[in-house]
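dude i think i finally got it to work??
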Amino acid sequence: MNRNVPARVEHEDLMRFLDGEITPEERAVVQQYLETSSEVRREVAIFRSLKEDLQDLSFVPHGGKSVWGRIRSRITVGTGWMLTGSGLVGWAGYSVWVFVKSPQALMMKLATGGIAIGILVLLAHVIWERLREYRTDPYRNVHR
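look at this
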């Protein structure tokens, strides 16, 4: 065996060889080793096929979200809505109870209630229109 050829070429050296990340001197050594060892040629063929298979993989799954991202989204969104809804119901109930029990004049209570109900109706209308528009939006699945 030639003195320039090492006793063994490591797998890391073979991968760097396939990726073109070695110096010309190291490339010559690996090529010499490839000429003398059928085992190393077989390993290089395996690594080359793995590299070709892995080249087609992407880190962004099709559709833009991974399976775990969708599961996490379903859990967190549902939990968030549940906590927000129950908090709002509790807050609104307490606010109504304090409002009714307050010593303010009836006219002030009716005026304040009218303003609050009007704002809630307008907010509900905007939310309803946005949902209706979202269902029929032809561009909702278009991503940049």
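The chain has three domains: 11-55, 67-102, 103-144.
im so relieved honestly
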